[in-house]
């Protein structure tokens, strides 16, 4: 995953931050297992990005809430 490389975060460190098994996260990266959307916010927080950014939603398509 690009974000983990940019931030210098290993799979082990992400596993600790998200409180998930390293093997499960590895399977998400290799696409051997479907990413759990119910954990999206947890991953985004761990990587210090928004959920939309993690999903690859372009900034210009994100709704503006006023």
Description:
This protein has 66 residues and is an all-alpha fold. 53% of the residues lie in helices and 0% in strands. It contains 5 helices and no strands. The chain is globular and about 40 Å long. The protein starts with a helix and ends in an 11-residue tail after the last helix.
Order of helices and strands: HHHHH
- The termini sit apart by 32 Å
Extended strand count: 0
Strand content: under 5%
In DSSP terms, counting alpha (H) and pi (I) runs of 4 or more, how many helices?
5
What structural class is derived from the secondary structure elements? mainly alpha
Provide the low-confidence segments as ranges. none
Helix content: 40-55%
Overall shape = globular
Using only C-alpha atoms, the radius of gyration works out to: 13 Å
């Amino acid at each position: 995953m690009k974000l983990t490389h940019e931030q210098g975060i290993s799979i082990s460190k992400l596993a600790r931050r998200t409180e998930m098994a390293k093997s499960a996260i590895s399977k998400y990266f290799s696409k051997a297992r479907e990413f759990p959307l119910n954990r999206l916010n947890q991953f985004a927080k761990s990587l210090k990005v928004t959920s939309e950014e993690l999903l690859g939603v372009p900034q210009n398509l994100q709704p503006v809430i006023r």
